[in-house]
What we know:
The protein has three domains: 2-34, no CATH class; 50-204, serine acetyltransferase, domain 1, CATH 1.10.3130; 210-310, Hexapeptide repeat proteins (UDP N-Acetylglucosamine Acyltransferase, domain 1, 3 Solenoid). 40% of the residues lie in helices and 9% in strands. The chain has nine helices and 14 strands. Helix 3 crosses helix 9 (190-202).
Amino acid sequence: MRGETAKHPECSSPDASPRSAELGLWTVVDALCKAANGMSRASRKGRAERALPSRDTLVAIVEDLRSVLFPGYFGVSELTEENVRFHVGATLDRVLRDLEEQVLRGFCFVCDDSESRCAECEQRAHDTTREFLSRLPEVRRKLSTDVVAAYQGDPAAISPDEAIFCYPGILAMTNYRLAHELHELRVPLLPRIMTEHAHSITGIDIHPGATIGDSLFIDHGTGVVIGETSRIGDRVRIYQGVTLGARSFPLDDEGRPIKGIPRHPIVEDDVVLYSGATVLGRVTIGKGAVIGGNLWVTEDVPAGARLTQARWHEDRFVGGAGI
């Protein structure tokens, strides 16, 4: 009988439902709440009391910053010369408070101090957030070069405004350029959350540690991968499906990948990488080189070189000729 389910120990909570008892739900809850499989935040003293960075809050912060970097395009659209300063100021004031808390959580997450919020982390978060905001004008300058590159590089673009509103490459580059500054400021975890959010929307995977110059144009973008130690110069064009990856992963004495060593390509100024090109390892693609579609490159390419696939041709043998 359904009414007898109250006898089950899983229903000891006043909020338990008969359906929960039938499923043994409280047993599942107890099992999931126990520290297991190395995924518990309580692995060090004091860690369990520390709040993790909030992905939802960070996504909202990025959208606020997008509305500041491109005022009128995102967020409030009814902006004029009279109210734009109010909008930018009010938005940055909110970002300052929210981002400082998230930066603090990031620092505390990797801090060895047993206190849930140590004074050193709080001061670092305060200083780092303000330094990050001071870099926003330069971030906007770089993004403006990306927008111009998209407009000039795509014959289908009717205006720079269309590139800002619609192009996945601009969205991905905005998240990357913001995340890169936090990465440079040694903020843990937050930069990857920001770039992976753009990755999930656009299919463009840019590690925040990559170094990218002005006027990058990512056309279409789906499937583009740019690894952590990649270095890209100015006025580079990248089409869909391009990978700038590592050829191998050097291991330490315990067989684990060594972190942070240069292992991704260097792409110099004015290079074009057509769709499906794969460039692996710490190789250099020289200035002005063109890498054709679906090519696999694991060696240096000199400046000005043109790499293309062999042309297809058909041999016909008539009347026994050629045999």
